[in-house]
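User: ok so my PI wants both of these folded by tonight, can you help

Assistant: No problem, let's get them done. Here's the first:
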Amino acid sequence: MSERYDKGMEVRRAVLGNDHVDRAELAKTPFDAPFQEMITETAWGTLWASDTISKRDRSLITLALLAAGGHWDEVAMHIRATANTGATPAEVREAFMHVAIYAGVPAANHALKIAKATYAEMGVEI
């Protein structure tokens, strides 16, 4: 693997947690391995590895974009990642309020519903 892949795996584990990454790695097959390698190198090894903006800010941007795009499974995953990135529930709520104005109330409403359920699963009081 490349240096970017190694850095990406390090960052991916720091953000999403070892349990999540271990499950994803165990589920990887020859069919999706090239895709997993690509996202580890690009999303995690390039974008998330950059220190231009904080992991907290990246987390909030990512959540807003995922909600705006209706990528609900990823919203829950990145809500769980806030435990590692430092984004607070209040900041996540504000990001979703931006989604309401700029991408639509239904998307923000559903993202807030997912956030509430995910925080409850995490034992985070909101």
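One down. Here's the second:
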Amino acid sequence: MQISYHGHSVVKIQTGNHTILIDPFITGNELTDLKAAEEKPDVILLTHAHNDHVGDTIELAKNNDAQVVATVELANYLGSQGVNAVGMNLGGSKEFDFGTVKYTKAFHSSSFTTEDGQVIYGGMPAGILFKAEGKTIYHAGDTELFGDMELIGKRNSIDLAFVPIGDFFTMGPEDAAYAVELLQPKTVVPVHYNTFPPIKQDPSAFKDLVKNAEVNILEAGGSIEL
């Protein structure tokens, strides 16, 4: 299984049979190496409804007949736009043909703003535990540090975690490093930084703070094999 990072919080997972995109914010993302017209996902997983995470989901899903998995309120909105969307909620898991998805809590906000300025409530924000081919990947989504990360770490052997470090909108490097201590992943990749001026960070400072996991700082397009 190949997992690659594509700027902001965009993650691509290539299993033996499926291409999965998490939070495909491509158009308008100056840090990404992807082009929406060239992506061919089978599945899109969303952590929450903010535009810099939903991104190109509607276009990608329609163009590729991709299944979208999101929290139920966001899934209902996407379904109203003609997308094949499955709505889940926190604590729930489902085994799909591409892998198992479980939604975990995250502490953030969640709404989608349409092109005409309408604000759509997106339900609870979430993290995602994704399991396939004997491996477990955790994408924390946008969140602050919270104590139940310890439970997530104890109840799941996490091979690879993606955690935000940008501060301002999410936890910053110090809190993210403590989150890694609680989650106990084998490898961690920092995300959600340097996209906008308020979240400018030096990821090497985060790396220096992490003592219990391998930190892999990926440039857009960089990948890890599991």
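The longest strand covers residues 99-105. The mean pLDDT is 98. Good luck tonight!
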